[in-house]
Please model this.
Amino acid sequence: MTGPPIADGAVLVEGDRIVAVSDRRNLRTTADREHHVDGVLLPGLVNGHTALEHHDLAHLAKPGPHHAWLWAVEHAARSLDREAWMRSAHRGVLASLRSGVTAVMDIVRAGPAVPAAGRAGLLGTSYVEIAWVDAREQDAVITALEASLARPAAGRTVGVAAASPVALSSGALFALSALARKHGAPFRVSAAVSSAEITALRTGEGPLAELATEIGLDAEWLDEPVRTGAVAYLDDVDALHGTLAHGVWVDLSEARRLVEAGVAVVVAPRAANQLKVGDPPLERYAEAGVQLALGTASPAAAGDYDLLAEAAAWVAAARRRDVVFWPAVTGPTPLEEQALRLATVDGARALGLGRVSGILEPGRRADLVGVACPATPQTAYADVLAGGIGRTVLTVLGGVRKARRHDADEAWPPAEDAR
Model:
């Protein structure tokens, strides 16, 4: 991703590090073993927003309104015991690796996904997500969360996530933000997801306000609506920092506010389409210069962890928003190339992983993915998105093959049979 595609290219790996990236003929004589992929080699993909623990809730990924989906997920989650959460998290890690993901920013509610991702070697942050908390539970939740931040999480960074501005009282949202600042922990908010969220904040009415009332949330914004958008509200309660997930309902002034605050946005266009909330305003993000990354969101929304499918959906969303080229630092960039950059180098940089993920170059950890699809150096980016979705055949993480199949048409073995 730091130069043009290499025809008949190869990556030489020693231990857990990349030693060289070049034409295969220059490297073959120095290698003890060779693994061939008839297609494209990419850096390991960076999933900027997902929920590994939700793997077994993928049956909820059906078109419908966002507020109904929230309630369905909350109801289904309450029926799972710890053993079920552990199995789901394990399968989520395995499915991510089979999708070519080597770094993941993961939302955690139950807990087992933290050690599962760490044992697998997945880089990134595990965000402990808090929802449906108000002043009555706030102190107890903050105390418990502080203890969670202090626990060892080998290979993972632990952060703080607010599920939604309308899933918390204003005081609880402020307290979560303050806790993250106090501990220097990554902070994330899923916000500006739907028009119903904006309506709830501005008027205290609508389906999300009704859901909060039904759950029993005692929130200030229900009695005294804030009459602003989600970004301005987050700023008002000192919670506009870290990263923001989704960001579908953001106007140009709010996009500029995100840039001023140094907040990157993780977009998930497939989930947005599935939940009928609209396309992310990519033309506004392009004009304002907002840093972007790609995420698949929960598999309960998108159905899987396929970041290449997400990249293709991003291209389609950009075209629907009348974006023709992306205004990169190096100049106008074709959308297909930019989409793969968001899944690798640019996404890693936006999420604070630029030093460890997103690039194939000597000295880096050997994280790479092989995609079986016909491609040429001149059309490689478009080729991957046109013919590579669902066709990952090799994932190498730290020099170790974590997922391998000989043919993209060969089904992966069931999770229970995989080691």
